[in-house]
From TrEMBL:
Annotated keywords: Membrane, Transmembrane, Transmembrane helix
Domain of life: Bacteria
Listed InterPro entries: TPR-like_helical_dom_sf (IPR011990)
Organism of derivation: Streptomyces pactum
UniProt protein name: Tetratricopeptide repeat protein
TM region positions: 7-29, 35-55
Amino acid sequence: MRAKITYFVLAAVLVVYFVLVGSRGVLLIEQGTPVTVAFGVSVLVLPFIGAWFLWQTTRFARNADRLARELEAEGGLPVDELVRTPGGRIDRASADAVFAKRRAETEEAPDDWRSWFRLAVAYHDARDTPRARKAMQRAIALHANPRR
């Protein structure tokens, strides 16, 4: 719950920033000189890129959360079997062992979104965020369009 609150606060701050930057771009365009118009248009591009990125990230998080709820309802969420240090950090060897198990599951059922979801969690636990995101994107795509 804390992560959701943080996400929404940061998203709201970004939206305010986009509005402020956009208003500056409009003011530059209203100046009417070729240089200020060029700068104004350039400045207006930034909020659009940021808004697109925020939309994509929000959509990804909502889809991943939906899959997690569905998997939880089925009783298929991965069990936390990781060894942790006294400080609470995940032991690297433990994360690697769980990752190997999840990768084998995914290789056995490459068209099952559930195995890709669990693989994404294993990547995340192993601190490989780019691969975790790609695996979760694969799970979302397979869930949306299951191969028959």
